[in-house]
Amino acid sequence: MAADEWPGGADGGRQRWPPDVERCAAALGEPQQWSQALLTLLGLMRRSGLPTLLAWGPELRLLYNEPFAPVLGTRHPDAFGERMQDVWADAWSTMGPAVQRALAGEACTLKDVPVPAGPGSRGARRWFTLSFTTAYGDDGLSAGVLAVASETTEHVALERRNAFELLLADELGTLTTGAEIAREACRLLGVHLDASRVSYLETRAGAGTVLVVQDWTAGELPSQAGRELGVADFGTRAMAQLRAGRVIRVNDFADEHHLHNTAWDGDMVFAETRSLLAVPLFRGGRLAAVLQVDGSSARSWTDDEVAIATELAQRTWSALEAAAAQERRLRAERELHSAAARQSFQLELADLLRPLTQAEPIIAAASALLGRHLGLSRVLYAEVDDGEGLFRVRSDWTDGQVPSIARTARRKLDDFGPAIIAALRRGETVAVDDVQHDPRTAACAAAYAQVQVRGLVLLPLLQGGRLGIVLNLHQARPRAWRESDLQRARDMAARTWLALDAARAQAALRAERDQGRYVLDTIGEGFLLLDRACRIVQINAEGLRLVQLRAEAAIGAMVWDVWPDVRDGALAGLHQQVVRTAQAAAMEYRRVQPGQQDSWLEVRALPALNGGVAVFYRDIGKRKRAEEQLKEADRRKDEFLATLAHELRNPLAPIATAAKMLALAGLEPAAARRAGEVIARQAGHISRLVDELLDISRIKRGVVALEREVVDLRAIVPDAVEQVQPLLESCRHQLVLDIPPAAAPVFADRRRLLQVLANLLTNAGRYTPAGGRITLALAADPAQVTIAVRDNGIGMTPQLAASAFDLFAQAERSSDRSNGGLGIGLALVRGIVELHGGSVVARSDGPGRGSELVVLLPRADRASVGDAALPAAAKP
After folding, report:
1. Using one digit for the tens of pLDDT, what is the confidence trace for 298-323?
2. Long-range contacts of 240-244, Cβ-Cβ distance < 8 Å, separation of 24 or more
3. Do 796 and 675 lie in a common domain?
4. Where a domain ends, among 461, 493, 513?
5. Model-level pTM greater than 0.85?
6. Do you know which Pfam families this protein is assigned to (predicted)?
């Protein structure tokens, strides 16, 4: 059989298809040996006008008719005799399962299958519906697959286009800015067309250039956003085509013959681009923009793809126009709102500053208002010493999120950027969106970081040609400053400068007016100016404090209305005397106020020029109370001396008697021994009195040395009880000990604590009637140890309880000397306890109801012992 003959079937007809029969013979054997079933199927294929394919044999070798060749694209004619899986390897994941089902005897159909045109093809992808049936051999068994193709490319393209248009409408409909619309349109078109890059370019009529405003890439080509191209990059002919409204298609920049037949005659600036589609867009009859689709490989652009790109370009342009109109409307609204806000701010600022007359409140109020209106982090005024190149901040306002930097040390101007300072010296407003990236401040970013500043606005005030004050607006995060922000800051600065100038002028007037008042307010005495009728004309601050009045309640009032208690008293007489005699006079006046401590005033009255009286008065209450205290101390001293004389005289009488007995001749040894014991006992009593006097003297002078160690108070109690046992037994007192089982450690002088316990018990024994009950209780908590001595004795008045531990207080507890003692025992207790860092308190429910004396000492722990282990003497 000739190479160009094709077996026709049972009738033995011939068809000149395909041209390469040898390929089929190599795969399936010589045609004369083909089975009748295969020949029959080939005859059916030849006579069929439908694109039909037969995959025959175990390897599914391909045979197909002429109408099927377009389905194969560039795979034809090499596909003849090849394995079906190899020919359609790129679509086998879709076709393979259907082929296997057909081989198994099951007919199946694949609808709208995308079939690649094949390697090296410039054509776009096509879609087919493929119907697969079983091809049976002469033995009636499955020998292959018969497939009939029906192209659905137009149908699928229409559906995809409709879906794309719906998606486009949905996606673009939600966007409001031109940048968002252009970016999303490029992305949608690129994904839909499976392009490498889609760019939106706008023409610059005045500059004769084209700017790549936005683009989208699939990762195969780099972004060109922001790049500006010249007309030569497109070429004169290409630009003419675009200006004429024609779409430019370039299938392959590497195909010079093809490129010659296109309108493209420019330099190909996008070196990686292999294919291109450019759609022009117009505004007012002029080329305004270009939507450009780039491919990284050669591609045959279809009319449908051109139509889709054109449709998207038009829709995008409409959306951009609508967004631009919306942006213009919003801009107008923003400008209107900004103008209204600016006017409102100006009115609020004017109302705020109007009543203020001092610089600091003016600056504080204006700074806070501006900070809140603009949402700033900090507002401050920097005072500049331009000659020294230094500045300082006296006060600032913050939003609470950044620290204040007021009252810090002066800093160098150049630390914050020489270029910035130079602009301020020229009187220019400086706005920095981000100090870390602005070239004027980047080198000084660390200085700004120390005060948490990223965004910055500075408004200078020049004084005599030099930089004097700088208004600072700080933002802790980068901020794109708007003109409305700067204008509001300028308004605030201008009005604040004026308010500060006015405040300085008023301050000068007030200083002159208030100089006299200042003198009166600083003399340390009350001053009162009365007219002839005794009406208050003027009163200074000290005068108001002394009489506990407010100025508004005093000025213009009659003295008798303000102080009714002086109407008929000595002060009224003093006023009348000075008015009548025109001579100065003075007196000490005691003012008695129910429920309050009496107050003493020294009053000096002088005749005034208005015919009234100028009164100077001062509080002499401290002096009067000191005099009373001296009198009281003198009284107690006298009582103490009387008590001391009594205490010394009592043991002297037994000593004198015993001495006389010893002088008698022939005194029996037993009597002499008793006399000696009396002398020793009474001398010991005198010695103890002297020791107490010396102890209290040393404590008062701060020369007592403590030998401190960790002591458990429980261990001291028996020794203290032993010391006072004779007193307790002689008075038939019952002593109750309330001692805790746990330790009560203190870091103290054992001998001195024994003295404290003994004195407390002795005091209770003396002032408790015979047969009384005395309780000694110890308690300890983590912080302190408590000693409490309670009795059911004679008790104390509240006044006496408050002074029980004062020196010489004993004399006030009894009118006679029967209890003994100098009244310094409890004073000695307080002195010793305070040397140990403790405290004392006396309690009583009243005379006849007993007393309780409490000592509080710090509990010993490692820290306190470590500290106290240093030389532990009381400091003089």
Report:
1. 888 888 888 888 887 887 777 777 77
2. 242/278, 242/280, 242/287, 242/290, 243/280, 243/287
3. no
4. 513
5. no
6. GAF, HATPase_c, HisKA, PAS_4
